[in-house]
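ok so heres the complex, two chains, lmk if somethin looks off
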Amino acid sequence: MLIHELSTAECHEVLHRSHLGRLACCRDDHPYVVPISFDFDGEHLYSFSTLGQKIVWMRENPHVCVEVSDIVDRFHWTTVLVFGRYEELRSPDEHERARERARGFFEQRDEWWQPAAAKAGPIEHHVPLVYRIVITRVSGRRADRPPL
Amino acid sequence: MLIHELSTAECHEVLHRSHLGRLACCRDDHPYVVPISFDFDGEHLYSFSTLGQKIVWMRENPHVCVEVSDIVDRFHWTTVLVFGRYEELRSPDEHERARERARGFFEQRDEWWQPAAAKAGPIEHHVPLVYRIVITRVSGRRADRPPL
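and the predicted structre for the whole thing:
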């Protein structure tokens, strides 16, 4: 099996064509990882969520790692890791353009607000909030198996 | 969309039939998440790896979270989260039975030592080490969409 390191441009290609990742955050030395759907605009990852554990944790500790992979089998896979910082797009003034951009991405997909908004819980937890990951570093690997 | 919480037995079913998960660990308030392959024996998750960042980090902070999911589309998915503790199976005396059990699982698959052993690096980093996740808690959710 041959494993190649990906260039930043190749990592970005993967992020452009993918919409599913695993977001890890941590608090008090305990990690937490959940699937997220996201859109990459060439600079940040945009996503949304209702208020739950990951949002509470990321508000406290904004360091995150997002794993995005395309795994065909154990010999053919691509994995990209994004290291960055959680940024909630709350302030209408400060983040208006970013929120608009995020909304534009999500609305291209039917019922974009699901499943983030489908959780049970108090009604105020149903309002989806928009956030982005400010990327500080990406790395990636691709594995291929040469023909026998 | 309907979202159901899974029972512990249902979570275990998912872990039994899955072999791919995302393992998150953390150090100094920074999370790290990577794909792993694993086998579940009904009690622990067994896996192996060459010496790399995740092993170095888990030796320092053994708290981990493993996400295992089966995502058909955004309306049909099952996700299980395993919270637990990294335990390296190093000591031949203490862990002989656990290592044998792990090896038995892995040898059922062709070339089980790939891709964990295919990394570039110093030769001592090529020796795969065996570890298990001692599970302290599992939780899971399943989403279905009722017929229209």
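quick notes: Residues 120-125 of chain B have pLDDT under 50 and may be disordered. thats all i got rn
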